[in-house]
Each structure stands twice: as C-alpha cells, then as structure tokens.
Write a structure and sequence with these properties.
Domain Putative DNA-binding: 7-98
Largest sheet: 3 strands, antiparallel
GO molecular function: DNA binding
Number of domains: 2
Shape: elongated
Keywords: DNA-binding
Organism: Bradyrhizobium jicamae
Protein name: DNA-binding domain-containing protein
Amino acid sequence: MSDFARQQSEFQRGILAGDDAILAEILDSPRETRATLFGVYRHAYGSRLVEAMRNDHELLHRYLGDDTFDEMGHAYVKARPSEHPNLRWFSQGLPDFLRSSEPYSNHPVLADLAALEQALNDAFDAPEGAVLALEAMAGFAPERWNGLVFTPHPSARRIELSTNAAAIWMALKDEETPPEAETLAEPSSLLIWRQDTTPMFRELPVEEAMMWDEAGNGIPFGVLCEMLATYDDPDGAAARGATYLHGWITAGLLTAASVHP
C-alpha cells in the first residue's frame, strides 16, 4: 500500500470508526489543535448522514423536532456506520435501531413511524410492473376461477404496526396536531404500494390480510375462499373473496392472474 493510500485508509477509519491514528499525521494550526481540525470532518460526515435521514423520514423528523431528531440521528450514525455508497440505503436499519435501543425503544411509536415511512419510500423506488386490469379477468371462464393464482405488484408489501403510528402519520402529513401515541390492543396490518407514481397505504382487516399473504404465496383463489370461510359466514366467503380481489385489481396491486397448473 502506498503512503497516500495508507493515509486515505486511516483518514476513513478516523471518520467512520473514531480511530485517532490519523492525528499523528496532522499538524496543529496556530489557532486550533489537530483534534479540533479533524473533528470538523467527523462532524460534517455525521451531519450529512443525519440530513439524509431527515429527507427519508420527513414526518418522523416533524414528530420529534429538530433537536431530538438530530440527537437520535447521530446516535444511529454512531451505532450503524454507513456501509453502502448510496445514501438512499443508509437509514434502512432505523426501525430496528429505534425498536431495540434506549431511550427510543421506550416509545414504540417511533419505530412504527420509521417503518411506515421506510415502506413508503421502498414502494416509490420499487421496480416497474404491469398492472392487472379488470378486463383481463373476463378472459377466464367461471369454472377456471377456483384455480386462479395472482402475482402482487413489485411495490406491494404488508407491514404490522403495534401503535397508532398510521393515524399520527396522516395527521402530520395534513399538518394537523397528531393524536397521542398509544399501543393498539391488536397489531394493525397495513398494505403499502405505489399507485401510478404515488406511494399509498391502507389498513387491512384481519381476514383480508390473511388472504393477501396467502395469495402472495401462490394459493389458488378457490382455496383462499375456503380459508375465508373459517373467518366468518361460510356462505358469503366467495363473495367476500371476490370483493377483496376486486379492490386489489382496481388499486393496481396485482400484475398478473393465471390458472394454477
């Protein structure tokens, strides 16, 4: 390794890992010590990453306020040094950090807000995919419907939240005073996807959440309806299944339907 390359490596370690070896190669200035001078680079690096987190988690930032968000952001930078050249992926571990690190883990709504914003960002950046049209369903004879399997759109995913973070997110988005954070009696299932170019989400009832998960696993429509029959009125299971399916198609949540071999 050349001397210049070694210096670059030590400089990087000094910023990323707090290693002070590089200070031996920096001169004090007439006004400041080498530690202070190098600290400018360390602070600028961390601040740039926190700024990127503000962009990715705009409403979490609004919820926490400048000072608390920046304090949290710098704690995250220290705990999870960047390992990817693209800043877009730096805050991917934020929900887990907030869920597992005190004092933030004492407020589960923070991890839920971060998870919701992350899922919306991921939906926006997801690959393009064909959108299944209602007209295409007319091409399947009624006797083939029991064997139909469906392909979710690449942007679609389901998450569960333990708090009322979705209601807080909506209030913040509308620039309204958010409700007090509270833990839900049962987790809330949210379906998140991109409709045209806009990330969307909506809450799913337990029955529909089950059907969505199993449809994504390739379970045919007929079997899905049999599973719905265990949740509520068995006689209305097929109608409920058709209603859920209609909603998915009109929202652009599916890319294809095919007959299970």
